[in-house]
Structure prediction request, 484 residues.
Amino acid sequence: MSIRPWVVVEAPDDRGLRRVTVDGETAGSAWSMPELRRILERLGHPDVDVTDPARVHWRGGDSDTWPDRPRRRHTAALLMTAGLLASAVLNAVIGWPDASGAMTFAQRLTGALFVLSAPVQAAAALAVIDHWGKRHSRVSGATVLLGVLTSTAADGLLLLLWFEEREYTPYLLVFMPLCCWSVWALWLLLKERSWKGVTHPRKFAAGVFVSALLTALSLVYSTMYEPTVAPMSLALKAEFGTARADRRLPFVQVPLKLSVKNTGSFSVYIVVDDFTVYGRTADYSEQGSFGVQDWRRSIDEYGEEEAERHVDRIRFAPLSSDRFYEPGVLLESGQEDAREHVFQLPVNTKYDLLHVDLQLTYMRKDRGRIDVAAFGQAHASWRKGVGQSYCRVAGCLGRLVYLGRVWHNNNLINVTRGARYVLATWSAKEGPRYSISPYFTTGKAADAAEEKKNLERFGVSTVQVRSEISVAELLKSIPSPRPS
Prediction:
């Protein structure tokens, strides 16, 4: 008969788990007496008397020493699993729009990193079962730690982006609790040194650091550097054609040739545009004057900064006004469009010059996206009932109103910001107006500094071209009207 006990139950470890050996070979580990009996029963010894020192040897405590707290352990494992799975879903939802449809490679890379972090966190959630269980795998703790570090980095980044504006967003109800959870989870894993099972912990830490650094650099490049340096320009042309006499009326038909070409690297959304033809009248003097007082009076009375020695009191009267595009139209890179507009002018007109002003306001597609379906619909503010819905800001009465949601080019910004809306209004007499603000659907007054910041963030710019022609030159081929 051997003097060595048949069954040996080792002292509890720091979690309360006791290793069990039978005949010198490890048979498993047990949290409690019922679990010990299941191990022995599985080995074909269901009737072992655990209180018999000749059969069972207890080290570091007797058969009543079971310090495991299953409720606390199960609760921690449940919270860890729930947090990892919630963070995985959140990262996949945030990253997928950029990974699948971003305009630039850097933005797609950022989205892909967020999407790829989801399976890492899901794998960590599966490793929780082993790490808070018998720990059969040596790397289960490190896997859980990697998942929690990924969640901490993502949730911390979202929180930092949110603090920049501190606006309400539904995602705040998700990533704010997850941020608190990640701090607790990281503290718990660091406290128990969960990386102990990794063969090369320094290489593991270096890999985590490099991954986090690449993610941060990709985000900074995609949200700040690349949209700033990418070239963007539009070429506009406006010129008068050859006038033709109207056979039935004492008018001439004047063609106006307009063209727009996107010479930039990215597509743009048309926010609003306008072209207006003006007829100029003035008072002429052979002696003339070029004094400062005359120039000041011209500005005060007519708002005209132009100065000529023999011309005074310059005035411009609008003759024809229209739009080249409807708001919301997408103008692709390299696309060129042309249009000819014809307006009427009396043969014996009093105007000496014709002046055309073509201006176009656009938003860069690499900076944001517009809800074209909503923004492309015109709403007349003077119609009954419509003004209450679409004219909640000052200055849109008597104008066509266009309103639609606008999103940033990076979904990380979208989920940490409140909703933004682009507003454009147009009137044939007063020209276009536009703005981007979160307040157009609430009636709250928008701050001018904030509107300016929004316009810069979305890359909203205005380009214009002006052209003049002498009426004498325009009508030189038109026969003079016969005296009545």
User: Anything to note?
Assistant: The chain has a mean pLDDT of 83. Residues 70-229 form one domain.
